[in-house]
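@channel sequence for tomorrow's demo:
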Amino acid sequence: QVPLVESGGGLVQAGGSLRLSCVAGTAVGFQKMGWYRQAPGKQRELVGVMDSMGRTDYIDSVKGRFTVSRDAANTTVVLQMNDLKPEDTASYLCYAKPRPWSNDYWGQGTQVTVLS
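structure tokens (generated this afternoon):
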């Protein structure tokens, strides 16, 4: 298991911004990295992911507000969140997949709370 260390969560007013970072404890790059989120009583859902070719996929509710980016080594992923809404409140989990056939790796989660 490769450790994924997340940082950047917190409390913010609606309309504000937060930046989440996730650093993988390995020098081996990942084919896919990104973020999921899970709110109490709800299923885990994809927020945004990017593959090693730079292609992205976002859940519709965050398009135009959130941006996923990665470093050239494919071991760090950042989620820039702008115009946050109370419904974005959740635990945000870093996700990484070394190769298409590999198991998924998950971070511990960082809490994002958006006040109305």
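heads up for whoever presents: The longest strand covers residues 90-97.
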